[in-house]
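User: Could you go from structure to sequence for me? I need the amino acid at each position, not a summary. Structure tokens:
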């Protein structure tokens, strides 16, 4: 009886060893340990900016900064001039970061991300521009950061 239980214990130990080894390998392949480290050491805002960009990609960082800096409490028009977003409708996809349901979008305020236009900041007059086939006129530049703008009428 002692020999049989000893062999059975070795088989069980070997089985658990392989299960644990496979689990650790899968975790390592999926960056589980790195991801846990990032969740612990970086706040949500930094992680969102790393994934969605500041004044690039989807512009989460710039959009968030404008909403907090100017105490925006409404939906405003967010336009992303990323060349991969061909249509006007696709260019508005960055608006979901701060979108509030049951509120109308105020089109007299615009956040422009990844702008290929270079607006003159010294020009205190209003500016007009065409964005993917739609005209926007009588806007004033409130804030500029790299290739991102916050505009109001």
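Assistant: Here is the amino acid at each position, in order:
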């Amino acid at each position: 009886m002692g020999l049989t239980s000893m062999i059975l214990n070795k088989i069980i130990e070997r089985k658990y060893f392989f299960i644990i080894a496979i689990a650790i390998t899968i975790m390592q392949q999926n960056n589980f340990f790195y991801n846990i480290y990032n969740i612990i050491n970086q706040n949500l805002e930094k992680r969102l900016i790393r994934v969605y960009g500041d004044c690039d990609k989807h512009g989460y960082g710039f959009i968030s900064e404008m909403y907090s800096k100017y105490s925006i409490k409404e939906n405003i028009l967010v336009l992303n001039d990323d060349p991969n977003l061909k249509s006007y409708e696709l260019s508005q996809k960055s608006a979901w970061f701060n979108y509030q349901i049951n509120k109308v979008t105020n089109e007299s305020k615009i956040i422009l991300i990844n702008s290929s236009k270079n607006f003159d900041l010294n020009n205190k007059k209003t500016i007009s521009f065409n964005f993917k086939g739609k005209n926007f006129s009588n806007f004033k530049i409130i804030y500029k950061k790299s290739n991102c703008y916050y505009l109001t009428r």
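One structural detail worth keeping in mind: The helical segments are 2-29, 32-41, 44-52, 60-69, 88-91.
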